[in-house]
Amino acid sequence: MDKFFKKLPISESALKKKRICQDDLKSNSKRGLIETNLDNIIADPGLRVKLSDYNVNDRDEIRRKYLLKGPCQPRHHQFPQTMFGNTPRRFNYAWFEQFPSWLEYSIAKDAAFCIFCYLFKPEMGQQSGGDSFTVDGFRNWKDGLSRLREHVGGPNSIHNQAAVMCTNLMKSGQHIEVQFLKQSDLARQEHKTRLTASVDCIRFLIQQGLALRGNDESDSSTNRGNFLELLRFLGDHNEEVKNVILHNAPENNKLTAPEIQKDIINAMAVETLNCIKMDIGDDFFSILIDESRDISTKEQMAIALRYVNSEGQVTERFLGIMHVMDTSAHSLKAALEEFFLYHGFSISKLRGQGYDGASNMRGEFNGLKALIMKENPSAYYVHCFAHQLQLALVAVAKNHVQVAWLFELAVTLTNIINVSCKRQELLRESQFIKIVEGLQKGELLSGTGLNQERALKRSGDTRWGSHYGSLLNIIVMFSSIIDVLEIVEKDPHSSSDHKATTFSLLDSLQSFDFIFVLFLMRDIMGITNSLSQALQRKDQDICNAMHLVQISKQRLQDKRDKGWTELFDEVSLFCNNYKICIPDMNTIYVARGRSRRRVQEMTNLHHYRVEIFYNVIDMQLQELNSRFTERNTELLLCVACLSPNNSFSAFDKQKLRRLAEFYPSEFSNLDIMELNCQLETYVYDVRADSDFAQVNGIGDLAVKMVDKKKDILYPLVYLLLKLSLVLPVATATVERAFSAMNIVKNRLRNRMGDSMMNDCLVTYIERDIFKSIDNETIIKRFQNMKSRRGQL
Questions:
Q1: What rounded mean pLDDT belongs to the chain?
Q2: Distance, CA of 638 to CA of 655 (rounded, Å)
């Protein structure tokens, strides 16, 4: 061939590109390429892998991901000091303001990096200089500012060349070395119409927690899945969408592929999280964490933040869910640090921790609480109030024989009725007849929401509010339950075991002992259920929560002191209505089914009033007093002094000054001296202001201070108020996230990936924020995520 054709000379640039490609091919053949996971890129520049270690076809997408995320700038990190001679020096966070687009800081290496050079220095060959801002990091804090300016250099410096390449990559939307023809305006408009229709359909499905994919998505399928069917429905009712999607869509750019769906959902989740981050700003916050297994038996850790927004309102937001290999404290701490670093949060801004009572969470030495407090002593831990209330109820149910017997009978009754559809139908039919008879006799009122169908539902072991509902249903449906059990006992088709169990149930349910304990626990759990519902509010503050616990204790004490007669009369009336024998309270008590020998003689009145009524309430009060010990801690005693109730009667300047000393990062010695003066003026001001006379709770106080601009007038007092408000009360927000997880990732969607599930949960749970994000923002994020065939 060389005899007939003369070789053309090859330019130096072409040779250089050829050598780079050959080197990449050789290196890729000799070593395994690093697997690219664009959904979980490493944020800390000191821990990143070299860009040259990735597949050459994935590098542009990795660059885009890092450019969209922005440089790693932990502005609120406590930067460690390094000795230069006899002078300690450290990284200056003000450098972030001078070099906001490219300067990065690695917490792992305590070093500065350049994101532009990391992304594009490998493309510049050997002339690009050393690795001080890409691999090793820069740590010479003594001449830091001058060295950073020197790194930027002139217009032709390596840094600025890399910056230009970054800009070109984001503008082009394609590989930096490939040029594409410009699309016509009509093609762009059609692309935008298709993309908008896909975004609208996915938005609807995500908000409802519905699946997108179908089992058979082929063109011949009669049900191609929710997304494609909804898209076709939209096209049938919109001619513009129909023409663009169903008729004229190019085969390679329909914007309906599973990968496109995932990218759109990810764009929605990222924009939702960005709104939450903007709402938090640079303020401090507390964390709420809990763990649970999903349908695939994978351990998931849910994370939520509690903070005070710019309007003074306490807000709890779900941030995401992470798969953890194990639930040890050190593993959870590492996962939390990775999560914070990825989202740009710093543990130094943490001012509260809210977990359940598991040892790996609240352990004094090696628990997650202890590990975080070693790094940040101001991140105070508060045991979930709702969980403590549940533990108090469980303790009484386990330690008192009659109460344990009551719940055991309730479980047995539910099993006997719910084991058969026929028995459930008999129960509904019997209850319907009773309701009709009651309406005809005028014993029941009619109206919207009244006389609804009821059923015996199985109580949840971790949700004691469901036990309260079960007790109410047994009381309301008592007559129908007895009728069904009598039918089951006489049914010739029932097994002998069921007949024996039913016979025992009928004997126990129609006893005075059962009815008495049933009504007693109904009253006790009615008081605690109201407290549980109040504690689970997202805007509940620690001061009001302690007040509600005190109210519940007082109600139980009043029940003990004054409630015997009312309870006995109500139980007696119920027993008379259903022909249940009422024992004489003055005779000797005889336990059912027990011998009278070796039994201490006591009257029925003493047994029911002292051994059951007083004893159960005393046990409940004792458990509440032992569980809710926060009221006795110095921190929360100081927080209570901020309460505006009764014209700020709890105000105590010395305790509030002590409260400020709990947060040395926010209050220096000079600030505490200034706080003294502010507190005196503040309390005179708010007591004289009629607008503050009707304020209840420190949550309402913060909102009122912002509304009246007093947060500007008394900044240190308002800072104390915010620090008190971010202290967590209950972990209900993350527990609700697990309920949502069971909806989003159910039995039919058990193969959903962790990243997809996280994105779906963020948009599903925080739907109020998600609804406020327009399609243009989502489309822009989607287009910039990676190279797209269609451009806008």
A1: 84
A2: 5
